Amino acid sequence: MARRLLPTLLLSLSGLLGLLPTAAAAPSTRAIAPALPLPAVAADDPYPSADHVAQAEADATVKAGSSAAIEARLTAAQTELADAGRAAEQAVEAYNGAQARLAKARTESAAAARRAAAAEVDRTDAAERAAQLAAETYRQGTSAELSAINALLGSKGPRAAGDQATAVGVAGARTREILDTATAAVAAAARTSAAAHEAEQAAVRATEAVREAKEQTQRRLAAQQAQVAEIADRREHLLAELAAARNTAVELERQRREALESIAERAAEEAARAAAEAVAAAPNPSADSAWSAGGAEGVIAFARSKIGLPYIWGGEGPAGYDCSGLTMMAWQRGGKPLTHFAATQYAESTPIGYHQLRPGDLVFWTHTGRAADIYHVAIYIGDDQMIEAPRPGMAIKQASLWIMGRPDFYGRP
Q1: What is the predicted pLDDT for the residue at 158?
Q2: Is the same domain home to 86 and 213?
Q3: Do β-strands 374-382 and 362-366 pair in parallel, antiparallel, or remain unpaired?
Q4: Residue 311's beta-bridge partner residues?
Q5: 355 partner at 20 to 30 Å CA-CA among 20, 167, 321, 409?
Q6: CA distances to 76, 117, 197, 296 from 111, in Å
Q7: Which residues lie below 8 Å from residue 167, measured CB to CB, with a gap of 6+?
Q8: How many whole angstroms separate alpha carbon 292 and alpha carbon 398?
């Protein structure tokens, strides 16, 4: 919501600030052009005529309209810049997600291969026992049960007959056990072999997905870098046009524009905080009790030590980090393993509400409102502040919790 408010706020503020005298805001070194010239007034007429006034008003209207149009283009450029950064970060997290799925697929493939190997050993053992039974039957010229029955018929006395009857039962049970085991082992070996093959294929597909995600991320980052350069150049031209339209200096217009953007950002952050207050969930005692101040200290200390390092996609340090790489490594210091993927980090955490936030907790953003589409994560440090790896081209920093608008999710690892 705050992100949607920002362009509107900028346009509204630009209109308000445009009504203020520029001399009041200008530095002492600024260059101010002379006022707009009026049509010549006859020497015997001490006052401007109605035509003179109308012309001056028309010129002022044209200048004001031109200024407003340039302000709107500056606001659009700022929005475009933020959108480009967000799209780049989404591409990075998509790559991280593909990497996480690949790691899982490889683990499952290895486990399936081990199960298949064990099942094959069982099948071989069962086959050997069945072969031994067949060899025994061949040597006796009949089945094991039939041999026992013949012995029973040739027995002398009731005791011998009882012993032979037991032998028949044992022989029958042993034969059934061998054959049942062999049959089950063959079936199990077939199932585990098929599962291992499917797991291997899944790992192959995951590898291809990572390759595609990497290529897409590289293209997205290259496009974002080009957009940043183009928008910066466009901004300078627009500021020059604005200075010409208002008869002021470019530096004065740059300062004025930065003030506009700062005011709009603060207003958007306040709107985001109010929105979070409005939807804050009731306290969850179990989540509160799970919080560890000691663990959080290590998490925050690690994150603070990385402020100023660059955002590097796929980064896990030490030279730089992306958003989920920073939170993963920080919480590794806090004793909690997390996956290098923002959406999975939320799934690995206990969901909490805004009012339950404690230092060390994680905050998440998504463009759809769905947890599966989370693309950014940061570490809450208290007092509505966070530490984050913002996006490509920016350094790790401490910032307002509301700088990107109201977080969509909160979690405690």
Answers
A1: 54
A2: yes
A3: antiparallel
A4: 321
A5: 321
A6: 52, 10, 12, 34
A7: 148, 151, 152
A8: 22
In angstroms and rounded to an integer, the radius of gyration of the C-alpha atoms of the chain is: 38
Q: Average pLDDT over the chain, rounded to whole?
A: 74
Q: Which residues of the chain register pLDDT less than 50? A: 11, 13-43, 52-53, 55, 60, 149, 152-153, 155
Burial of 340 (0-12, 13-18, 19+ CB in 10 A): buried
Domain around 178: 33-37+52-247
Q: Please report the sign of the dihedral spanned by the C-alpha atoms of residue 397, residue 87, residue 268, residue 378.
A: negative
Contact yes or no for 137/242 (Cβ under 8 A): no
- Distance, in Å, from the CA atom of 379 to the CA atom of 180, rounded to the nearest integer, reads 58
pTM for the full model? 0.63
Residue 66 CB contacts under 8 Å (≥ 6 apart), including other chains:
241, 245
Whole-number pLDDT of residue 5:
52
Asked if the structure places residue 336 within a domain, the reply is: yes
Indicate if 214 and 362 belong to the same structural domain: no
Residue 84, C-beta contacts closer than 8 angstroms, at least 6 positions apart: 223, 224, 227, 228, 231
Closest CA to 390 of 309, 340, 323: 323
User: How much is the pLDDT for 412?
Assistant: 94
Please, what's the b/e burial string for 301-312 (b: 16 or more CB within 10 A of its CB; e: otherwise)?
ebbeebeebebb
Q: Which of 195, 228, 247 is the last residue of a domain?
A: 247
What string of DSSP letters covers 287-331?
A: HHHH--HHHHHHHHHHHHHTTTPBB-TT-BSSS-B-HHHHHHHHH
Strand order in the sheet with 374-382: 350-352, 409-412, 362-366, 374-382, 385-388, 397-400
Task: Of 403, 347, 307, give the one whose Cα is nearest residue 85.
Answer: 403
